[in-house]
## 1
Amino acid sequence: MNHSSRRIFLRNTTLAGSALIAPNFLSCQQKTTPVLETYKPQILSTWNHGMPANNEAWKTLQQTGNIVDAVEQGVRVTESDPDNLSVGLQGLPDRDGIVTLDASIMKGDGSCGSVSFVRQIKHPITLARRVMENTPHVMLSGEGARRFAIAEGFALETEQLSPKAEAAYQKWLENAQYKPVVNVENHDTIGMIGIDAEGRLAGACTTSGLAYKMHGRVGDSPIIGAGLYVDDEVGAATATGLGETIIKICGSFLIVELMRQGRSPQEACEETVRRLVAKSKATIKDVQAGFLAINKDGAFGAYAVQPGFNFAQHHPAKQALVDSQSYFPQHG
Ligand code: GLY
């Protein structure tokens, strides 16, 4: 399947239009700026771990033509990556040494499902999809999510930290200072949003959450509207970074609503980061949060609080890791 489309819209930014302005002056003032590149189909994912995830999502989309299958299968790659310390059961534990996972999935028709504070489940994104498809609920948490997983035939994995996570946890225990860490190894959470050739949207978001968090802490990733929001009428957005700051501004929902009001995905991401910064003033220097957005035409945007955020982009003309712009400039 190769239903690709690439369009560059040119916006004439002249203030004129008035016959009172002399032709020579008019031509000096005219500036033609490419503002929106649109691609369908397209997959966007947070961080460098989004590259292999996007490949899998792309392959799945080609095979099944189903954008929900694509985002689910895509993020499962990250959930299975033994070296990943911020997604899946190999992620860093909470301060009690226990790995708890959060995940959500959403379709452009408004269907959604999520799980939070789950243990022993290798693929929380698939469990979130089962919540969406096999229950009348949106969110299951903790022990209830575990029981549902068993009823759905999921295997429970042994609770044992991965060697990398164990080593990091032992080092953390030396001081055991309660200062949860975000942006570990320059990544945190995989949020993936995708659009198919016909403009159907879906998204998936999955994480082991903030390293050394309090037991029971839940971040933005499983909260519909915070870590993920998708609406076929408008677009989709997903988030990464310090969940508390993202929850407080309903970050992904805010981006979609700003796009509904006419902002481009890039403008919507930037406005949302400005809102987050304004609401987190006291602690902002220690905060990283980043957003990705796509609209129903396939235009995209990304923006973060701090430098260092990147995202993986996959469409017919490009598969690349792209550096995001940020609110604060590079330090030093
Ligand atoms: N963004 C992931 C978390 O805060 O848990």
## 2
Amino acid sequence: MKDLLSISALSKQDILRILNLADQLKFDLKHGIAHRTLEGKTLAMLFRKSSTRTRVSFETGMYQLGGHAMFLSSNDIQLGRGEPIRDTARVLSRYSNGIMIRTFAQSEVEELAQYADIPVINGLTDFAHPCQILADLMTIRERQTVLEGLTLCYIGDGNNMANSLIAGGALCGMKVRVATPKGYEPDAGVTARAGDALTLTNDPFEAAKGADVICTDVWASMGQEAEAEKRKQDFAGFQVNGALMANANANAMVLHCLPAHRGEEITDEIFEAHAGEIFDEAENRLHAQKAVLEILMG
Ligand code: CP
Ligand code: NVA
């Protein structure tokens, strides 16, 4: 493993290695056992979009591992004034030991990785959100013990979250069911690679039937603000609510990468009833990313 650009670029062994180390790091943190594996190392964090969890968990993770993280908003660095990504990659490679980037196009992350001599981590693109899915798989495994054989259901937009959940779920031996409105399907390459592991439908109730985990995400992602009103209409009926949950397994978990829009993709009632696992999921970003940082930069 040189970079973390997407879940599809990982093997099942890579994922299990990250999840096992993440569990260990979480246990050790709670028991006061320090890991100073990145002493003297720095992570450059490039952001072209907003963030709460990704920024804070990477910054905290680097600190806990003995290193340092630099928050670089594209508004404040020369990248935002048009300095090419390939030059930014080569400059940052002379100062830092790793780069995390949150941006729009997946191709920008790929180009950054091509020109950087140091590991590159995708902190969300329009196509993928691999760090989030590692935390999601960690959270599911914590509560269900195994991933293999579980039914993972995603309701909503065929976006970065959908693409990465499909890839991660299929790699880990889960049955993945995805329900989107017509015209909002996930990436065709991702769905083709998932093969028989994936069921795609436009019927949320069919997707949720007997599922062990129900996931959802916002209807309008960052960069799609102008479409928000149209999307509210197109996604009516694709809400995680009491009726939908009644169709899932009795003990089904609910996951949401956050931020959530209560009353849109999820009701307040279901969100609060599952706040335990949703905020474990947010916490696990820290542990899963520390595992990635140790593996790539240690
Ligand atoms: N889930 C997630 O990536 O959150 P942020 O946008 O706050 O980083
Ligand atoms: N799909 C959302 C996820 C946010 C963490 C977005 O891209 O805005």
